[in-house]
């Protein structure tokens, strides 16, 4: 899986339409999306999922009014439940050695709305609907759960088996039927739960992928997940942080916590107020990072971002974090919250991305949907 700062062919998004994600504040949300598209369309193609022709017409009208370059925007009629493309869209990979030019492929993971909500079937089906349109090689990650616990002579229990068979569109139905007959299960993984440096090292959290709360893949242990990452994403070095931030309904996505900004540097958020719910978990994550190494055994360089003052709406704490930035070609989009720490966050990221323009995007309305810029975008590598 290439790093996010690698050259993009396009950014994928899904036009917002689920009004209950922004209760009482939906009206400004399409305009926030349009402003994001306006910036992205200057530096790469933007590919937008829309539910139908009528929604495509509405989206084009709003984009035109905000000055977005519509010649750089492609629409795909693919129904969705929500607009958080990072978590249900395709995760793109490169075939062959990460250091050599190679063809692009994609992985189609299962999505179950963060093991929390019921409205997910359209989102789960979205990548499958895109596969015949994209005409790229693809894999559907599956695993074989142990039918029963059997203890080997050495005393270790049998583990689920990772199955790495390649699936092509023309074989999809037959292979899926065979897989189900064999007891194979699709693996749940959201793009917001992982972050990679493109050389084999990945960041993720125990809270999201190992907890029994909102459990994505019950029965899979840490070593099983690491084997899955190795098989499907080329990850040889998985770095486990602890818990996520307050207000995050995904139960610990790493893209609100810590992000690679180059192959050897991680930027992570920190909270200075000891009375804040984020203080202890963020201190723990920082301590872990300072002892972590990359795929070659070298210590990581660690930089820090502040947290904004807590953002509430109607008594609910929202997952506002500067770590939810998105790295595009030639620019980085950064969430801002009308907060005194906005400037500090923007300045820090400007020192870490000297080859890119840093653009702040007001996200105080957007974060009511419990996500911001990284959650709504997914990169397709060139």
Q: What do you see in this structure?
A:
With 382 residues, the chain is of the alpha/beta class. It has a single domain, classed as L-arginine/glycine Amidinotransferase, Chain A (5-stranded Propeller). It has ten helices and 21 strands. The protein has a four-stranded mixed sheet. Strands 4-5-6 form a three-stranded mixed sheet, with no helix packed on it. Helix 1 packs across helix 2. The longest helix is centred in the N-terminal third of the chain and has 14 residues.
The top level CATH class name? Alpha Beta
Determine the number of helices (DSSP H or I, runs of at least 4 residues). Answer: 10
Mean pLDDT: 91
Straight-line distance between termini? 12 Å
What percentage of the residues does DSSP assign to strands (E)? 15-25%
CATH topology: L-arginine/glycine Amidinotransferase, Chain A
| Low-confidence runs of at least 5 consecutive residues | 147-160, 164-171
Helical content band:
25-40%
> How is the biggest beta sheet arranged?
4 strands, mixed
């Amino acid at each position: 899986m290439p790093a996010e700062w690698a050259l993009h062919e396009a950014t994928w998004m899904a036009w917002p339409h689920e009004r209950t994600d922004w209760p009482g504040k939906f009206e400004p949300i399409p305009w926030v999306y349009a402003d994001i598209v306006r910036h992205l369309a200057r530096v790469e193609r933007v590919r937008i999922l829309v539910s139908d022709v009528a929604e495509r017409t509405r989206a084009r009208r709003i984009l035109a009014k905000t000055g977005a370059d519509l010649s750089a925007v492609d629409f795909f009629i693919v129904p969705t439940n929500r607009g958080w493309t990072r978590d249900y869209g395709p995760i793109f990979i490169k075939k062959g050695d990460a250091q050599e030019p190679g063809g692009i492929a994609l992985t189609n993971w299962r999505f179950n709305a963060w093991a929390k909500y019921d409205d997910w079937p359209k989102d789960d089906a979205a990548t499958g609907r895109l596969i015949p349109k994209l005409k790229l090689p693809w894999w559907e990650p599956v695993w074989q759960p142990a039918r029963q616990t059997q203890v080997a002579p050495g005393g270790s229990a049998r583990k689920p088996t990772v199955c790495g068979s390649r699936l092509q569109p023309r074989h999809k139905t037959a292979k899926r039927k065979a897989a189900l007959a064999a007891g194979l299960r699709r693996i749940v993984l959201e793009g917001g739960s992982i972050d990679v440096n493109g050389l084999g090292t990945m960041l993720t959290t125990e809270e999201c992928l190992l907890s029994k709360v909102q459990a994505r893949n019950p029965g899979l242990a840490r070593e099983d997940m690491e084997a899955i990452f190795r098989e499907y994403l080329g990850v040889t070095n998985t770095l486990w942080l602890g818990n996520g931030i307050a207000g995050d309904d995904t139960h610990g996505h790493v893209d609100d916590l810590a992000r690679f900004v180059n192959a050897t540097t991680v930027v992570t958020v920190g909270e200075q107020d000891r009375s804040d719910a984020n203080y202890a978990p963020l201190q723990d994550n920082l301590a872990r990072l300072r002892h972590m190494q990359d795929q070659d055994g070298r210590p990581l360089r660690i930089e820090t971002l502040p947290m904004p003052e807590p953002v509430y709406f109607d008594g609910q704490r929202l997952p506002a974090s500067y770590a939810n930035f998105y790295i595009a070609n030639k620019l980085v989009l950064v969430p801002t919250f009308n907060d005194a720490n906005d400037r500090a966050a923007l300045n820090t990221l400007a020192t870490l991305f000297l080859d890119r323009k840093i653009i702040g995007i007001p996200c105080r309305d957007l974060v009511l949907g419990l996500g911001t810029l990284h959650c709504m975008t997914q990169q397709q590598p060139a």
